[in-house]
Structure formats: C-alpha cells, structure tokens
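re the bet — no i am not wrong, look at it urself. input seq straight from the record:
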Amino acid sequence: MVVALTERVTLSWKTASFLDSEAHKLLSAWYAELRLGTKKQKMSKTTMHILGLLALMLLALEGASAQRVQPVPSDQKSKPAAPTEEARDEFFGAVTDEDEGLVRRLLQQNPALISASNEDGTALHCAVGHNKILAILLAKNADPNAKNESGETPLHLAAAGDFESAELLLAGGANVNAVNLAGDTPLHMAASKDIAELLVTKGGNIEARNKGGRTPLHAAAKAGQTEIIEYLLSLNADVNAKDGEGNTPMMLATELKNKEAIELLQWTNGRRLDVKEAEKGIVGHGLPVKVLGALASRLRIVNKYVLIKKGLSDAELIKLAKELHRLEPKTSFWMLDDDAKAEELLKALADYAAGRPDVTPTDWLKEHLVANVQEYIGPGTTRSWGLARGLGSDKIADLP
C-alpha cells in the first residue's frame, strides 16, 4: 500500500510543474520525507493519511492542468491538407471540362487545390482558353506567375493563341516579361498581331533576348508571322539584331522561304535590296542590259544596278541611257560592264542594305562603275536628268 501510494505521488509529482514556487517547496519537503519513510518502511498512520491526501490532491491538479487549452502559435496552425494525386487530377479535369460547379465545390472542400501542379503546370495553366474558369481561379488568388516544368507561366500559353486569356492574366497580375527556361518572353511566343500589341502596351520588351540571343522579331521571322513582323518594324525593332549564331531576322525568314516576310525584312534602315523590283519596267524591252539588283528607299527612290556590254562608246551609252530613262523616268541607273564584278557588287549592296556602317555602294562604284543615269539639282532647285561617266557628277548628256 505504502509503495503503491508513493509511486502514484512520484508520477503525479512530474506533472506538478504548474504549481507556484511556495507550493513546490512545501511539496518537495513532504515528498522527501515520504520517500525516506517508504524506504525505511516506518510510517505512522498520520503520515499514511497525509500521503493519501497528497496523492489525491496531485491527481486533481493534474486533471485540471490537462484540461487547460494552450494557444496555438500562428505558424503551427493547421493548413489545408495537401491534395492527393487523385484529387488534383479530378480538379484539373473539372477545369478543362469547364465544370464551374465542380471547380467551386472542390476548391471549397480543399483550398490547397488552387496551387496544386503537375508537369504541365497549375490549374491556371490548364484554364488557358477556358476563360470563365480562368476568371474563377484568378478570383481565388491563383498565382498568375506560377511556372510549369518548361518554366512557362500561364501568360506564355495564352500568348501562343488566346487573346482573352492573355487579357485576364495581365489584369490578374501576370508578369509580361516573364521568361521560360529557354529565355523566351510571352512576346516571343505571340501568335497574332493583336496579342503582340496587347503585350507591348502592357510593357512587353520588343528587344528582349532569349538564351539563343533571339528577339521577338527573330521569333516572328522564324515562324513567318508577317503581321507581327510588320508591327514590330513599325516600332523600330532592330532588324539587324543577330542571335547567338549570327543570324538576323532576315536570314531566318530566308531559311523559311517566306516571300512576304522576306519582302518586309528587306526594308532595313530605309533601304532594301530587291532584284525583282529592279526588273520591273525594263525587262521585256530587248535592251542589252542585265538587272543585278535595286536599292530602294521607303520614299520609293530607286537605284538600279545593271550590267551592260563592254566597250560601248559614248554615243552607245547615251542611246542606252535615254531608253532606260524613257522606261523609268524616276530611276537612277548605275551601269557596269564587268560581269566578274557582279557578285562583288551584290554583296556590297546586301551589306549596305543590312545596315553595315562601314559599307556603301559608292565605295565599290568608284572603282567599277562605267556610267550613271542620275537626277541633277540646279540653281533654284531646278531638276534635270543626265548621264555621267563613272561616278562623276559632270554630265556627258542631258536626258529628256
């Protein structure tokens, strides 16, 4: 009996840490005596009685302590259980099925579904193109900048084909210049002029470079998106930008053989090189010339480069110049007679059209030009056309 009571007191004593210091001192003294008495097995009835009362008192205090409700620290408050793979798949299925009721119900049951993800991204990625669901998820604070395994945000996916989704995401706080693992921004992935305009008006960077060094203009040229090319050029996008492999947008369009894209990108710094345009007007008239190319400005001032027969006399040059001027009275003609130099000229023209600051056709023409048909500006801004030998400005004949 004594041993049992002592054990009970010993057990209860361990839970008495809530007692104040004076109570601890008193109980400590009693407890020491009781243990000493128990060991010697010499205890009076009075001591036994005290021992019993002490045990009962500690038991009561122990119970009261157990019933106390301790506040839970804020960082330890319960959080929504992480959704199972099955629950996530059901939720994503409801999103793509556009089942608004089920989407709301599942989110109410487990709010953690809003940030659940798989390799394709979050529910917000799945909701691109399902704009009613997209709006619901954004209202539930879905993260518009969450990324999938490719580093793409929902806006990347929307830019690739859904204008309304892109609008909703931008209004919901999407980063217009977010980059994926390849370094592409949403503007690199824009599928239409409307989407490109939306992204740019929201701060999209038209000169952003991806990891390959390509700008949105490179991307549009590679994809043959002529409306986007034209829009970006209207914003003065750098048409001469080179990617990590030295490719300009023009080079990528040429690989694709997209004639319309090439036509747009040939306009560089107000110039373009265009053999087909050069042939218009003079081909089919039996003239002894071969068109090499044309360098045209946005103001439609055209310079045409033609190969002529070697050894023409001045009279023969004048006769040819008059016929060329009759057919195209507003075109300057630059004539050379060395076929071996034609390829060299075209390279010089192409470099000039591409905006290389160290290259001008004039440098080449000084050495190789035979004669030129050009417009002269006289006193009082009077204008006239004439033929000059070489690159000189001294006329050897007036042209009517």
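see?? The radius of gyration is 43 Å. told u. also The CA atoms of residues 110 and 117 lie 14 Å apart. so pay up
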